[in-house]
């Protein structure tokens, strides 16, 4: 009887510890409390298979202690492919929020970054709403060592195209200046600002104009 009782206590304690480990990540993304475990898991109760946002986080945006690395890089990705970035859905388009800070934006406008059926067409005024440009997926992708990044502009405008690593640190600025409307193909030879070949890993290409921004995720494999 004592053995059975002890096993039951151990199971309860393990369940509590596991639940706490999962739920801590709810507070490591902006407005995570709105959808809680459903932000990352198909089962809204947490655990089990991850949705597309959860997979993005698990593969590339956890530190050595298993904490979520929230910032520009993760915020700029559209994990569930609903044409809204993770940051836009969580009301922090530019990835400026940090864990422990007050939640940004309007909680009523938060949508689930891992569920394409959960999205909103309404954004707070501070958000950059892409209206004049489109950033296409690079090709080839994965790449080694070079790739081409294409984008389309619906009007003449000033833009910048920058490469960041998975932590959001700048790697290379490819374009900065005024361009005409139309399609543009930018070749990147895989070198950083110091002329060194980048290492294997996930990189982000971020296209910005005065009122719009778009980000794609790229994979370099050696």
Instruction: Write down the overall geometry.
Output: globular
Determine the fraction of residues in helical runs and give it as a percent range. Answer: 10-25%
Q: What's the domain count? A: 2
User: Strand order within the widest sheet?
Assistant: 4-3-6-7
How much strand? 15-25%
Q: What would you call the structural class?
A: alpha+beta
SSE run:
HHHHEEEEEEE
The total strand number stands at: 7
Q: Give the oligomeric state of the chains in this entry, treating copies of one chain as homo and distinct chains as hetero.
A: single chain
Weakly predicted, low-confidence segments: 4-21, 122-130
Largest beta sheet, briefly?
4 strands, antiparallel
| Rg over C-alpha atoms, rounded to the nearest angstrom | 20 Å
What does this structure look like?
The protein is an alpha+beta fold. The protein is about 20% helix and about 25% strand. The protein has four helices and seven strands. The protein has helices spanning about 1-25, 50-60, 70-75, 85-90, and strands at about 135, 145-155, 155-165, 170-180, 180-190, 200-210, 215-220. Strands 4-3-6-7 form a four-stranded antiparallel β-sheet, with no helix packed on it. It has a three-stranded antiparallel β-sheet with strand order 1-2-5, with no helix packed on it. The longest helix has 22 residues, at about 1-25.
């Amino acid at each position: 009887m004592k053995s059975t009782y002890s096993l039951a206590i151990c199971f309860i304690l393990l369940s509590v510890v596991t639940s706490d480990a999962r739920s801590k990540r709810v507070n490591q993304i902006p407005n995570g409390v709105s959808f809680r475990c459903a932000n990352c898991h198909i089962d809204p109760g947490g655990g089990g298979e991850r949705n597309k946002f959860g997979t993005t986080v698990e593969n590339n945006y956890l530190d050595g202690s298993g904490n979520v690395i929230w910032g520009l890089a993760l915020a700029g990705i559209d994990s569930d492919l609903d044409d809204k970035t993770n940051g836009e859905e969580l009301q922090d388009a530019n990835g400026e929020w940090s864990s422990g800070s007050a939640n940004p934006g309007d909680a009523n406008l938060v949508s689930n970054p891992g569920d394409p059926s959960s999205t909103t067409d309404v954004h707070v005024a501070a958000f950059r709403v892409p209206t004049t440009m489109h950033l296409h997926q690079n090709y080839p992708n994965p790449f080694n060592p070079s790739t081409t990044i294409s984008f389309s502009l619906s009007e003449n405008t000033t833009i910048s195209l920058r490469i960041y690593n998975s932590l959001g640190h700048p790697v290379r600025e490819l374009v900065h200046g005024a361009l005409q409307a139309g399609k543009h193909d930018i070749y990147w030879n895989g070198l950083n600002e110091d002329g060194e070949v980048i290492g294997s890993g996930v990189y982000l290409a971020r296209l910005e104009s005065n009122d719009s921004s778009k980000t794609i995720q790229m994979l370099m494999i050696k």
